[in-house]
Amino acid sequence: MLRTDTPVTVYRKDYTPPPFAIDHAELVLDLDPQRTLVTSTLRFARQAGAPDAPLVLAGEELELIGVSLDGKPVADATQDAGTLTIPGLPAQGTLEITTACQPAANTTLSGLYVSNGNFFTQCEAEGFRRITYFLDRPDVMATYRVTLRADRAAYPVLLSNGNLVGQRELPDGRHEAVWEDPFRKPAYLFALVAGKLECIEERIQSASGKDKLLQVWVEARDLDKTRHAMDSLIHSIRWDERRFGLELDLDRFMIVAVGDFNMGAMENKGLNIFNTKYVLANAQTATDTDFANIEAVVGHEYFHNWTGNRVTCRDWFQLSLKEGLTVFRDQEFSADMMGSESGRAVKRIEDVRVLRQVQFPEDAGPMAHPVRPDSYEEINNFYTVTVYEKGAEVVRMYQTLLGREGFRKGMDLYFQRHDGQAVTCDDFRAAMADANGRDLTQFGLWYSQAGTPVVTARTDWNGDDGSLTLTLSQRCPKVGIETRAGTPEKQPFHIPFALGLLGADGKDLPLQLEGESTPGATTRVLDFTQAEQSFRFINLPRGASAPLPSLLRNFSAPVIVDAEYTDAQLTFQLSHDSDAFNRWEAGQRLATRALLQLVAEVQAGRELKLDPALVQAMRAVLTDDTLNPAFREQALVLPAEAYLAERMGVADPAAIHRARQFMREGLARALQADWLAAYEGNATPGAYSPDATSAARRALRNLALGYLADGGDAAMQALAEQQYQNADNMTDRFAALSALVNSFAPGREHALADFYERFEDDPLVIDKWFSLQGMQRGDVGPHAGKRTIDTVLALMEHPAFNLRNPNRARSLIFSFCSGNPAQFHAQDGSGYRFWADQVLALDAINPQVAARLARVMDRWQKYELALRDRMRAELERVAASSTLSRDVREIVGKALAA
């Protein structure tokens, strides 16, 4: 049964501490798929300032069996929709509450549920209330003792948070395990797992010499795919010890993989539950990207042990306190694992690409919200790229402003002050400020103001005295909820703006600001705090030629830079800038400029021509063997269609796709010899390894293969077919399959059928097969009339497709709706009708997944009128459903109100 109650908006300004504290919880769960009995014994105490308040506990989909206080039945407890209210409680005491839930019927995958015959939990954000009645809010922190009972034959493994303190056999073939977590935690970090699982394990010593047991639990058939996850866990533990002086605090740490999971993973204290996608990997089934993602996600969830678990959120408005901080930590970890400065630069490029393609549009749409939101209707809808990725950029700006050493000092003070507490984003900011003697009051606007600031940069060169004046101005229009009447005007952000100046020889110039006695470093971080601010650099080489500014180095703030560069200046920067990010950025600006011009030509019906200067710039990057292959691969990937749509006043997906494909095919033909040389020169002989160097070579090689196949040359498509057949790893095999499918090579259908036959028993690999077909091109050139939607609809009937499995739904439905803009935005509206059908179907099963799909339509007003009208009609059809969940209702309602 879904929640279809009237939506209630929750406001951050209304926060009040809970009237009761619960400092210890004992849970006994008699596990049965149809009816699990839960007995919770809660030690409570009334808080100061709430002498008469009743205890109101949250609960959903629960059968209440009994309530007692200090051993005596409670007669006046009242059960309402979503709550259990107990009046007249003493200052302290012990409540015992017995309830029942139905795990097998729980398709929401929130709370306690069954997947492939095993029990799992997901309690963040508000899933614990689906297990038992509780003060289910993050500022209620308790220690837990958990007793699990189940049939031994069906559920031989019984796991929960913390340390295993007891096991015994029970009558009738049942058994029991008792777990105790000595650290206070909120209910959202509770977890249990029960079922037929096996593990690999390792024992290590922490930096202080304490023994630790590490385990990765999976189904028996997947045991051979767990080594990389274990290695990633060990690397994460060692990195956190070195970088932040933080040790694993429990005697053991467990990872469990489950195939049905709404998220990527969950950081439950000592018992991390993961989507199988982020645990299982071997050379035959996982790509280099999969291996890298597993390392990053394992790191992310482990790092939460301190940034999220030991110090947690006071309320859900502070979600970025743990998520933004921990994303930053996992980004830094992954960058360090790359093993070189060039590798770190590639990681930074990857992170910014995601930010621009996904978060910047969110910042401009109806769901735009600050990193710390001021209100919500459904908290599940605020697990967003703004909270996570933009939140990470806010944390990174602290490090940019304070330096790595200063950031570490701030982290140390944060833990010293707040270990074991539920706190706020302002508490973190205060620790950073106090540890470094800095006033970061204005910096707090990054938490309270939404939108992406636009920074305009102008330069004034005086060749006679060798001075350059840089004038920066910032603007950030109201977005999302800020557009409501009465919202105060936005204030200037505190922007750490890093820059360098390139001399005529392409080398960095020492930078000396007016008022300084000597030149300093060649990269400077400016404190840009006003609506408009000027900085004068002096003692530069005199002459007619102005230095070339290298702006926002390493993407030092999540802003859009508006600066006028000529194509010649961008080409110069692409060739010479010492900042690898800005070198990549120059190439992207060149390509974006050329692509948007081609889009205009498509719309005007004019003949398309490829700019020879762009071809030469791409050739220079492709053939420069001094550059890291991973960097070259990133630099040669054209800007995404979604990114280009955001750069247009009115988006035209069909014209964008045609322009981008024209450029891609043109580059394929013009640089065929160079692509082939790159393909042949970046082979990785020997046994497969996912190490950064080998992965970089494969990335460039497979990019070259994709371009070669797109050129339409039969011999090059045959090369892709040959790689597909001979590949000894999934990276090369899947890259070849993608090249065949997207180039409409004659062997594409045979390769698709062969791929399915090879891997039909591996769900994660079949997810790739579905995803590739959902994102395949259609209606292009000689293939006009071929609609990807027809393929998607046919695949919905495939025996391997299962709408109830989030991974499978994402692999096909989300891939088409989010990853194939030209086909999704078909003029006949077929993509929109499909979207509405699937949102409604998913909402009846799993509202969280449905709400994420609903976000696809956030930017519907960005498109030309005919598409806009069709999108609105489908949004209204979804909104009109009488059984719509709160999750989807909030998304669709805000989209329509925009």
Automatic annotation (TrEMBL):
<dbReference type="Pfam" id="PF17432">
    <property type="entry name" value="DUF3458_C"/>
</dbReference>
<dbReference type="GO" id="GO:0016285">
    <property type="term" value="F:alanyl aminopeptidase activity"/>
</dbReference>
<comment type="similarity">
    <text>Belongs to the peptidase M1 family.</text>
</comment>
<dbReference type="InterPro" id="IPR042097">
    <property type="entry name" value="Aminopeptidase_N-like_N_sf"/>
</dbReference>
<dbReference type="Pfam" id="PF01433">
    <property type="entry name" value="Peptidase_M1"/>
</dbReference>
<dbReference type="GO" id="GO:0006508">
    <property type="term" value="P:proteolysis"/>
</dbReference>
<dbReference type="InterPro" id="IPR045357">
    <property type="entry name" value="Aminopeptidase_N-like_N"/>
</dbReference>
<dbReference type="Pfam" id="PF11940">
    <property type="entry name" value="DUF3458"/>
</dbReference>
<keyword id="KW-0378">Hydrolase</keyword>
<dbReference type="GO" id="GO:0008270">
    <property type="term" value="F:zinc ion binding"/>
</dbReference>
<feature type="domain" description="Peptidase M1 alanyl aminopeptidase C-terminal">
    <location>
        <begin position="567"/>
        <end position="897"/>
    </location>
</feature>
<dbReference type="InterPro" id="IPR038438">
    <property type="entry name" value="PepN_Ig-like_sf"/>
</dbReference>
<feature type="domain" description="Peptidase M1 membrane alanine aminopeptidase">
    <location>
        <begin position="229"/>
        <end position="443"/>
    </location>
</feature>
<dbReference type="InterPro" id="IPR014782">
    <property type="entry name" value="Peptidase_M1_dom"/>
</dbReference>
<feature type="domain" description="Aminopeptidase N-like N-terminal">
    <location>
        <begin position="26"/>
        <end position="189"/>
    </location>
</feature>
<keyword id="KW-0031">Aminopeptidase</keyword>
<feature type="domain" description="Peptidase M1 alanyl aminopeptidase Ig-like fold">
    <location>
        <begin position="451"/>
        <end position="563"/>
    </location>
</feature>
<dbReference type="Pfam" id="PF17900">
    <property type="entry name" value="Peptidase_M1_N"/>
</dbReference>
<dbReference type="InterPro" id="IPR012779">
    <property type="entry name" value="Peptidase_M1_pepN"/>
</dbReference>
<keyword id="KW-0645">Protease</keyword>
<dbReference type="InterPro" id="IPR027268">
    <property type="entry name" value="Peptidase_M4/M1_CTD_sf"/>
</dbReference>
<dbReference type="InterPro" id="IPR001930">
    <property type="entry name" value="Peptidase_M1"/>
</dbReference>
<dbReference type="InterPro" id="IPR035414">
    <property type="entry name" value="Peptidase_M1_pepN_Ig-like"/>
</dbReference>
<dbReference type="InterPro" id="IPR024601">
    <property type="entry name" value="Peptidase_M1_pepN_C"/>
</dbReference>
<keyword id="KW-0862">Zinc</keyword>
<keyword id="KW-0479">Metal-binding</keyword>
<protein>
    <recommendedName>
        <fullName>Aminopeptidase N</fullName>
        <ecNumber>3.4.11.2</ecNumber>
    </recommendedName>
</protein>
<keyword id="KW-0482">Metalloprotease</keyword>
<dbReference type="GO" id="GO:0008237">
    <property type="term" value="F:metallopeptidase activity"/>
</dbReference>
<dbReference type="InterPro" id="IPR037144">
    <property type="entry name" value="Peptidase_M1_pepN_C_sf"/>
</dbReference>
